Amino acid sequence: QVQLVESGGGLVLPGGSLRLSCAATGSGFNINFMGWYRTPPGKTRELVAWITRDGSSKYGDSVEGRSGISMDIANNTMDLQMNSLKPEDTGVYYCTVAGLLFGRARNFWGQGTQVTVSS
Questions:
Q1: Beta strands of the chain (E only): which ranges?
Q2: Most Cβ neighbours (<10 Å): which of 2, 22, 101, 105?
Q3: How far apart are CA 33 and CA 22, in angstroms?
């Protein structure tokens, strides 16, 4: 009933920017939380950023100050703008959402999108 569509990943030069988008499709889903996590090569999953329905947000230490996350409540979509990209930003980025599906609490994960920062 609910699927996540991720877009915006790819190869970016150091110092460049990109925008990751995530869209939750399906009826009856009211999202309370959306976020991005990533798995750099050889490392465990780490938080990139999350945002709640009321607009509260949090960023991982490594991206704070150069990233911005936003959420479109009406369309169940989320955007993550990342600037001044560094090689250590390389990894697989996963979208995650949590909310109420016809009144029942549910959590979903996207398939992941590759981000590579390299010259």
A1: 3-7, 10-12, 18-25, 29-39, 46-52, 57-59, 67-72, 77-82, 91-101, 104-109, 113-117
A2: 22
A3: 12
The torsion of the CA quartet 83, 42, 35, 85, rounded to 10 degrees, works out to: 0
Q: Which amino acid appears at position 4 of this protein?
A: L
Tokens of 79: 């955007």
| Nearest alpha-carbon partner for 88 in 62, 106, 69 | 62
